[in-house]
Structures are given as structure tokens and as C-alpha cells.
Write a structure and sequence with these properties.
By secondary structure, the protein is of the alpha/beta class. It is 57% helix and 12% strand. The chain contains 9 helices and 6 strands. It has a 6-stranded mixed beta sheet, sandwiched between helices. It starts with a helix and ends in a 12-residue tail after the last helix.
Length: 289
């Protein structure tokens, strides 16, 4: 039965996809009277995939009732086969597993890199960047001197796994957490969702910044507004600053970083000084320059 279902799903998915793709492509070509652009081809592919999945699951449920999980899995195999040419599910699973492993490992490696380079750049400035688990250890040991309201808020961020790093400073024999840091290997890597907790951090009078490894998507005005504000969708800034490690852009609150992180040191010095001396002014409008 499973082989029959799989053969049905592969055949139906591929037929539906191709028919819908050809129909949409022909319709667009006739309407535009010009060559179809790559972006338009991508849009046609996406819509054709959705159509093929929908039609195959509907027809499959009619033909093979009460086998929804096998149908869905078989459509998945058909989809991956069309995209990659790989028909062996074991190979597909190995590739998916490797990709997931890469995303997890590379993300953690980027966090460690930022922690190391940022702390090194501080020199004699009493500021360090630490991992979330390190802040958790310090809080549990009673070694963070922030007010109880801050401690309660920081515990919530740790519990929700919201921020990747935190900025701390030591004054005399007391250590304070004054900054919340996000690290993204791509500007598109969850950054839309990460904007909201950053705003909460700024509204709680913490310094909130984000580091991105690949700022290529910052060419898009939407992402620029996401950081700086100024649009209908994003009227206010989403971070105090975004640091582009690829050193490609300097637009408003988007700052390019070289490997020496000198600009970060300058901004950190102003941030910790203002946070310690006049925190009541350390709101969303605060800016390093």
C-alpha cells in the first residue's frame, strides 16, 4: 500500500506542478509581452509548488482515505525529488540533519566569535560580553547588582532564550548587566521576530544591539527601516544599533564593523557611561552617535 501511495503522490505532484507552472508561465508571457524575469520565475515556482501540494493531498485523501500521514510524507519526498533530483529518503534525511546541525553549530560559533572579539576590543574599559548561560550563573550566585526589577526581567529573558549575549560592567566591587545582544548570521535569520524583544529591552532601559554576519539584505529599504524606523510599517527604531560584521553598510543606526571592533568600543563606552549616570534617559531614542 505504501509503495502505491508513494507512486501516486510522486506522479500526481509532478503532473500538477508542471501543469500549473506551464499555465502560469504562459499567462504571464502573454500578458507581459517580454521575457519572464528570474524573480517572476521564482514566484511562479513557489505558487505552483503550493498548488501541487494542495491538489495532491486532496486527491490522495479521496483515493486513500485514512492514510494522511503516509500521503503527506510521500508528497514531501516528491517535492524534494523535484527540487534536488534526490530520490533516496535516507540521503534526504542525512542532508536535512546536516543542514540543521550546521545552523545550530554555526549560530553558536558566531555568538562565541562576537563574545571573544567584542570583549577583546574593550581593552581597559570595564565592559565584558558574556553568554546567556554565564549571566544566568552570575544571577544565581547573586553577583549581579541590578535592582530586583531588572533581575526579574533578565530572568524572564533567560528563561525564554531571547538574547544570545549580554553586556556587563564592573564598578568597584559590583557588577551590572546593562546590555542585551542578539547575534544573527543573516539579517533575515529570525530578525523580524527579534525586533519585538529588542524594543522591550529598550523600553526596560537596557542597551539593545544586534550583530549580523551578512548584511547583504540591508540593501532592502524594508530592513533599513526595521532598524532605523521611519516607515509606516516600522515607525520607530528596532535597536539602539545594528553592527554589520561584513562592514558593508553605514545607514543611520546600522554600523559597519572591522575585526578590531573599535567602533563598538566607542559605542560601548558611551552606552555604559550613560546607563550608569543617567539611566532615566536611556530609552528607545538613545543613540551612540
Amino acid at each position: 500500500m505504501e509503495n502505491e501511495i508513494k507512486e501516486f503522490c510522486v506522479r500526481t505532484y509532478l503532473d500538477c506542478y508542471q501543469a500549473e507552472y506551464d499555465r502560469s508561465f504562459s499567462e504571464l508571457s502573454e500578458k507581459a509581452k517580454t521575457a519572464v524575469k528570474d524573480r517572476q520565475r521564482d514566484d511562479i515556482e513557489t505558487s505552483s509548488q503550493k498548488f501541487a501540494i494542495k491538489q495532491t493531498i486532496i486527491e490522495g485523501m479521496r483515493k486513500f482515505p485514512n492514510h494522511i500521514s503516509v500521503l503527506w510524507h510521500s508528497i514531501y519526498e516528491a517535492h524534494v525529488f523535484r527540487k534536488s533530483g534526490v530520490a533516496d529518503l535516507r540521503v534526504i534525511q542525512d542532508v536535512v540533519s546536516a543542514d540543521q546541525s550546521w545552523k545550530k553549530s554555526s549560530g553558536h560559533a558566531f555568538e562565541e566569535m562576537i563574545k571573544e572579539l567584542a570583549t577583546m576590543a574593550m581593552g581597559d574599559l570595564p565592559v565584558r560580553f558574556i553568554l546567556q548561560r554565564d549571566l544566568n550563573t552570575l544571577i544565581k550566585a547573586g553577583e549581579i547588582a541590578n535592582e530586583p526589577r531588572d533581575i526579574s526581567w533578565l530572568k524572564e529573558q533567560i528563561k525564554g532564550n531571547i538574547f544570545d549575549l549580554f553586556a556587563i560592567t564592573t564598578v568597584g566591587d559590583k557588577t551590572y548587566c546593562f546590555g542585551c545582544v542578539q547575534c544573527k548570521t543573516s539579517i533575515r535569520d529570525r530578525v523580524t521576530r527579534d525586533r519585538e524583544p529588542s524594543i522591550h529591552a529598550m523600553d526596560s532601559y537596557f542597551w539593545s544591539v544586534v550583530f549580523v554576519l551578512d548584511g547583504e539584505y540591508l540593501r532592502n529599504p524594508k530592513f533599513q527601516h526595521m532598524v532605523n524606523g521611519g516607515s509606516k510599517e516600522f515607525p520607530t527604531n528596532g535597536w539602539h544599533g545594528m553592527y554589520d560584521v561584513s562592514a558593508s553598510f553605514n545607514i543611520g543606526r546600522i554600523y559597519p564593523l572591522d575585526l578590531d571592533f573599535k567602533l563598538l568600543r566607542k559605542h560601548s563606552e558611551k552606552a555604559v557611561d550613560d546607563w550608569m549616570r543617567r539611566r532615566q534617559w536611556f530609552n528607545r531614542e538613545w543613540i551612540a552617535e
